[in-house]
Fold this protein.
Amino acid sequence: MEILSILIPASLLLGGCGLAAFVWAMKTKQFDDPSGDANRILMKDWDDHPKP
């Protein structure tokens, strides 16, 4: 039972760090890519042989 006194705060700290990283990424617009791969693959002028 003593290990829970270490694991619970550690898991809350790591979860908080992950949440803070996610909020930071959202505020700095890391996920905004209007012409990303999802849109590029649907384009009609697909280039099978891109330039090196």
